[in-house]
Amino acid sequence: MEMSNVYDSLSSSSTDTSTCSSTTPLSPGPPLASSSPTRRKTLRKRGQVKHKMKILNINFQSIKNKKEELGTLIDSTDPDIILGSETWLNSSICSSELFPPGYDVIRKDRLDGYGGVCIAIKNNLVFERLTYRLDREIEAVFIKLHIDRHQSLVICAMYRPPSSSIAYMNDLCEVIEDINAENRNTVLWLGGDLNLPDINWTTLAIDRNQYQNAVNMRFLDMLHNCGLEQIVDFPTRQNSFLDLFLTNRPTLVYKCSPLPGIGDHDIVSVVSSIKASRRKPVKRKICLWKQADLENLKKDCLVFQNSFTGQYCTSSSVQDMWLDIKTTLTKLLDKHVPSKMSSTRYNQPWITRSVKRLSRKKKKYYNRAKTSNDQADFEKYQQVKRHSRIACKQAYNKYLTDIGSPDTTSNPKRFWSFVNSKRHDASGVAPLKSHDGLTTADSLSKANILSQQFSSVFNHDEDMTSLRDKGPSAYPSMDHIIISPQGSIRFCLSLISMRHLVLTKFLPDF
Fold first, then answer.
1. Last residue of a domain, one of 243, 272, 301
2. pLDDT per position as a tens digit, 41-53
């Protein structure tokens, strides 16, 4: 029986296989066509930039003495999250004294004034603080950040003192393991100074014996139990890997690189492709009264006065009069007073051009020293670093001197704005969790949650007839109050909070 192959050869050659030697293997050759799809190049529209999350892992070693350098660092890098260790803070120091506006700070200070950790996160990110089993004496804070597609991200800032025992490491690892068990499908980011120079992170072996072997083994066991991976592949203090960044999703880390530190530790900069849920920034309308046309504004107010008194009387509806006043005053403001919208990015006014130039120079010499690994380059970098630190302090002190000088008495707004920003931490209603377990941060949702909570404590089935009658009220009701058009104008103007102080200067008395 004759057998034949019904499939054609994939080779582009038309060589007859019968003439080939029996000792030569048959080769089909390269395929004429491929079923593997090719990636098409997508053209990104102009101005369309994919937002990536920036995280800085910093060992401060006393943040209160380096607040000027921290401000310059934030201005140049614009991080979304800062994981800080060795903050050396106590309850007498407010976070607003150290971090610029625009950041919410979660801290855990040590009682003796040393150590301590913090997480500084931009206030447009939706997050909540985790307090699960954090009553233990460990230096760690946890937050849960809400990202797209109803997923979450757990972030931790931690610190292990060099003098701590195996019990401290065991408590720290147990808390991490418990939080990982409670959040199985979430992304974990853990950063801080762990003081574990004995571990070789390439082979996950213990090469040295500076600390107890049990301390290192317990930490490695925790990494294995939680499926975490350490991604910092460069030393952060001399030749030691002390500042670490751990995650269970290393593919979401776009870049991990060093930055010149503000202490004796280098900064770990991490860029991730995670896109978090952000609150839309609220812009304010700012009236530029110095450029207002006051003469025409006064004339239009006189015209409105005459038309208002001729249109309404004592029997007119207060609501109609109020709407007329509100609409007219708003139109007059838009017509005669120029305005602008507030910026969503806060720029620190004391950072001058020379300070920014020294900051870039410090980074340049740092990269050169790390590349060449030459002692002379490191000494030059340390010299530039000292000059940059001095320049930051001088620029900050000069700014304070300028806003507090006697020349500012005619316009003290800048001085009191600075004082109020440093007097206390940012306050407000934190994100609330509804009955269905969802955390909300917008104002309307938080108001509804609080309204439901307050209304739930009232008894709707109470018999109103059982209440004792205390007689008629001593205060008159609104039915007996007659408001004239002139009185309604003054009443409505008092409701226009900020505008009342200005507009009453141009509205004459009736």
1. 272
2. 444 444 333 568 9
